[in-house]
């Protein structure tokens, strides 16, 4: 691969991002974790707000978990936020707040894996360290015509070896970032090969196979679910609880809900609320359906507004005034339901 040509292309075509204007390993760490599973343009406002709220690793380590999860609200995959919080505490405790500059030490920090460690070493410390994300995998498998499924160990080793051989001894961090940029903007799922600066050496392009590679294992089938969600109101307050079970929604707040197979009437809704949560309530109105997708689940939420008629407070729940609800972290699906209730 002509890395000089690639680096020259990158200098001309690279997009402007706030994390590209710094060598601060803390800011680079935050950006790299946010960029996992999320497009760069979407990340920018979240990154800016995060740095404003938690400008240093010490500030993040001292924050309450709810503050951290709230700052992440809308990005999804909330384990990333929890791991950043744990990692920050670990860095402050073991390294005096200074992010280490060795791979071994970085990998010992909660939430930092091979890619994030490589990115920090490369972009913050300018070390010759591979940073292999999905963008780089597309570029490398196509350029070298690697036709094996990308999740198997032998393919991962082949990709790593190829990147290690490509990276020059000087300015390797520029080439690392250029590979990521090429995959993100040109060598996409549907590649724009005509705009590629290294297409002349790309074996997949030369064989007309750029649309076939990389070989990716089929995703698990989408699971469709439906839930009745109860907006239980009493004296200007709404009933919510914190999700404590380990999973994708852990540490987010939610309204009472029950899995159902089809839309239900108001009478059935209040009966289920009584049966499941022991709450006597009067039905007020059905709110519009809300679609919520996460990982392989597509959930239809059927929200109903009810008014609690007694003092019952189920275990784990709390009453929160409507103005205060904006301070609690909710999933995007529940946040849309709150907007239907005029909670901004």
UniProtKB/TrEMBL annotation:
The keyword DNA repair applies. Transmembrane segments: none annotated. Residues 104-123 form the Helix-hairpin-helix DNA-binding motif class domain. Keywords: 4Fe-4S, DNA damage, DNA repair, Glycosidase, Hydrolase, Iron, Iron-sulfur, Metal-binding. Residues 34-185 form the HhH-GPD domain. The keyword Iron-sulfur applies. Its cofactor is [4Fe-4S] cluster. It catalyses: Hydrolyzes free adenine bases from 7,8-dihydro-8-oxoguanine:adenine mismatched double-stranded DNA, leaving an apurinic site. It holds the Pfam family NUDIX_4. GO terms for biological process: base-excision repair; mismatch repair. Binds 1 [4Fe-4S] cluster. Its EC number is 3.2.2.31. GO terms for molecular function: 4 iron, 4 sulfur cluster binding; 8-oxo-7,8-dihydroguanine DNA N-glycosylase activity; adenine/guanine mispair binding; metal ion binding; oxidized purine DNA binding; purine-specific mismatch base pair DNA N-glycosylase activity. Belongs to the Nth/MutY family. NCBIfam families: mutY. Adenine glycosylase active on G-A mispairs. MutY also corrects error-prone DNA synthesis past GO lesions which are due to the oxidatively damaged form of guanine: 7,8-dihydro-8-oxoguanine (8-oxo-dGTP). This is Adenine DNA glycosylase. It comes from Estrella lausannensis.
